[in-house]
Amino acid sequence: MDTIASHTGSDNIFRAALNHSNSLSKPINRYTLLIIIVHLLVFVAFIILLSLQSKSKHEVDLQDNLQMNEEQQANQPVDDNLQTETIADYEKDLIAFKQSDLFNQMITNINKRKELDTKEKNTFIDNYETSPELERIRSFIYTSSSRLNGNELNYCLFILLGFKQKDFHRLFNLSQSGCRNLKNRIKDKTQESTFNYIFEEHTGKI
After folding, report:
1. What is the band of 194 on the pLDDT scale with cuts at 50, 70, 90?
2. 157 closest CA partner among 123, 179, 173, 134
3. Which of 9, 18, 119, 178: disulfide with 174, CB 3.0–4.6 Å?
4. How far is CA 42 from the centre of its chain?
């Protein structure tokens, strides 16, 4: 009897072990697999998001640093004596422009007291602002000031060429009353030595 009971118990243990082994060897069902895949995708997306945020923050910091450097450079004081000497070096560019047909056209129109119409003004301004003879001095005045606008730059060069304030409106898209305010705005934006060089040494020579 003990032997039979022993065999029966052994059979039961063997069957239980076999059933457990079979349950472990069953393939993972689709639902479980789907959950695993979803979790993996969420994890990968999270890693990518962190990477993008880190990159974006780095780019913002870089732009802030560049802007800060530009502002520091713009706020650095300029040596007045050095600037006066530098702008004076462009006299030869002004002389070269005075040999051009465009300069002769300016003199002719002003002497005739002729104000160009809008189309003629736009054509003239395009040629004036792209004149190679005035390119260097235009760039110098712009970069050494607090960012003069187009009319203000054109006016500075107009005076440097020896013309009078009252004639500016004849060639450019600005009223006579608007011209009166230009000089004050330019004074606020430029170094004193540059302003004096333009408006005291060159005003109304033609």
Report:
1. confident
2. 134
3. 178
4. 38
CA distances from 171 to 84, 103, 119 (A): 28, 12, 11
pLDDT computed for residue 116 by the predictor: 86
pLDDT tens-place string over residues 83-97: 444 677 888 999 999
φ, ψ (nearest 5 deg) of residue 147: 60, 75
Is residue 148 predicted with pLDDT exceeding 80? yes
The pLDDT value recorded for residue 81 is 47
Instruction: Please report which residue ranges of the chain form alpha helices under DSSP H.
Output: 2-25, 30-75, 80-88, 91-97, 101-111, 118-129, 132-143, 150-160, 168-171, 176-189, 192-199
Cα separation values, 132 from 24, 93, 155, Å: 86, 9, 17
Per-residue model confidence (pLDDT) at position 177: 80
Environment class of 143 (CB within 10 Å of its CB; exposed 0-12, middle 13-18, buried 19+): exposed
**Of the candidates 166, 170, 139, 164, the residue with the CA atom closest to the CA atom of residue 153:** 139
Q: DSSP 3-state assignment of 202?
A: coil
What are 35's two structure tokens?
């959950």
User: Are the C-beta atoms of residues 194 and 145 closer than 8 Å to each other?
Assistant: yes
Do residues 76 and 191 lie in contact, with contact meaning Cβ atoms separated by under 8 Å? no
As a dihedral over the C-alpha atoms of residue 167, residue 171, residue 177, residue 182, rounded to 10 degrees, the angle is -90
